[in-house]
Structures are given as structure tokens and as C-alpha cells.
Amino acid sequence: MYLILLYLTTVLSISLIYASDCGCHLNRNSQCSNEEPHNKYSKTFNEGGDSDTKTCTSFDKSDMVLIEAATFEMGTDKPVFESDHEGPARNVSVDSFYLDKFEVSNGKFSEFVLKTGYKTEAEEFGDSFIFEMLVPESEREKYKDFRAVQAPWWIKMKGVTWKHPEGEGSTINDRLDHPVIHVSWTDAKKYCEFVGKRLPTEAEWEMACRAGLRQKLYPWGNKLTPKGEHWANIWQGDFPLTNTAEDGYLSTAPVDSFPANKFGLHHMAGNVWEWTQDNWLNDPDAKVKKGGSYLCHESYCWRYRCAARSFNTKDSSAGNLGFRCAGDVK
Prior knowledge:
By secondary structure, the protein is α+β, with helices and mostly antiparallel strands.
């Protein structure tokens, strides 16, 4: 009996560990990638990006920060998720660039759609992923066959889009200052191009997150709650069962909430994952995302650290996935 209990405990532990890596890598097919990348993550891969990412300078810079060219120490020699290739720590040089102070909001994305008639990939596919807790408890049972493999707290629901974030009947009217969600990498890229900008590279994003601090965990330092105050919108409680929302938010928060880092950038940790230009290693269909989200917790997905990284297929969308734009300096 003891051996049986030991075996079951071991299997459960392994399953939970696997799930902790898997839920962040969810793709549109309700699967999680467990394929080990066959190339070691390095500066070479980080510098790779799309060839059409250069933009003109005719974009609105009023809500952007100019980040001067510098060499910074990227990554870490103390990786939390080795399969994410968070290390090694290495010096990376980045040219000057502009970066949005805020994640792109529902209000800003609405203006884009109104002017262009653009339809997101979630709208084209007809569904997107929503976190279980945001679905009324009385309705969850009927979605038991529409849950993500090994991350059953994600429900693939019809009618979920950026303007109906919890499905038909839900609205963003009271969340115009919250980050737009349920947007794919392609959607984010199209928006940035429309406003004359582009997605940031991973190196740009991480340098901006660190804001001149060397090898600190978070955009503000190593302590998660300085002076007992919340500086990021993340999960508090027992994931995925209980979120106490001590930071004030069960889901997304306004894009200008919580303190900015030393560069004047908000939500470089938590709130929503942010797409970057970069391929996940050598796969052009998988894109790096940074920053973690309101669903991240140290016990499960400690990826709201500056060095942390994850990925999704570029057609993926979910209720915790958004973006901000960058711009070139010429």
C-alpha cells in the first residue's frame, strides 16, 4: 500500500510540474507543446526577428518612452524553467528605440477596428480561450469537453473575442482602459503596422523591463511587494482554485494602473502576456511572449520575472494575452 501511494504521489507531482510548464504554451488546437527545442537558446536566436519589422518615424510618440541604446545583461544563470531557455545570462546590445508606456487598450484597439474593419483571428476562427473562473460556475460543466489538454482551467469557448471577452453577452464598454485580449500575434502585428509601429524584439522588451537594473527579478527589484504594496496584477491564492484578488483585480487591470518602472513603463510584469517579434528558437510559427499575466503565481507559472519567457503559436489567442508596440529611432 505504501508503494502504491508513493507511486501515485510521484505521478501526480510530475503531472503538476508538467502542467506548470504547459499551460503557458497553450495553442489554438487545445494542446500544450512539450517538444524540447533542439537548439540552445542564445543571443543569436534572440536577435532573430521578422525581416519586415522596420517602421517609419511617423508615429505618435506621446504615450511612448525613448529608450537609449545600451548593452545590458539579458537572461539569467538561475533559470526557474530550464525548458524555457531563460539562460544563460549574457550581454546583449540594443539600439535606441521607442516603446509604448502602456499595453494597447480596448479603447485603442476599438479605434483601429473602426477605421479599418479588421477582424481578429479569434473572430475568424469563431472561438478563443477563457479562464474557467470567469465562466459562471453553473455553466462550467457543459464545457467539460472543450478544455485544454493538461490545462483544464482553460476553456475553448465559441463567441469569445476581443470585444466579447467572456463570450456572447459580455462587453468591454466598462473596460476600455483595460488591455485588449484575445488577440493573436498576427492581430498585434497588424495593429502596430497600422499606427506606424512594430512589435518589440525580445531583447528590447527585456531591456525595457529591467529599466537599468542588473539581474533583478522584477522591473522594480527583487521584492515582490515592496513596503507591503502590490506592484503587479498577478494571482494571489491557490492556483487554479482560489484567487483572493488582494491586488484589486480578478482579471485584467487598467493599463495605467500599478506603479511604472524607472523607464516609465506600466505592467511590464503581470496583467497580460505581451507578444514580441521573435520566433521561439527556430520555429516561425511560434512566437516569444514576455511578462506573465494576472494568472501567474510563483507556485505554478513564475513567469512575471524579467528574464522569464514563454511562447504560443502565432495564431493563438486567450484571455490573458495582449501586446504593446515599439518604434524605431532614425
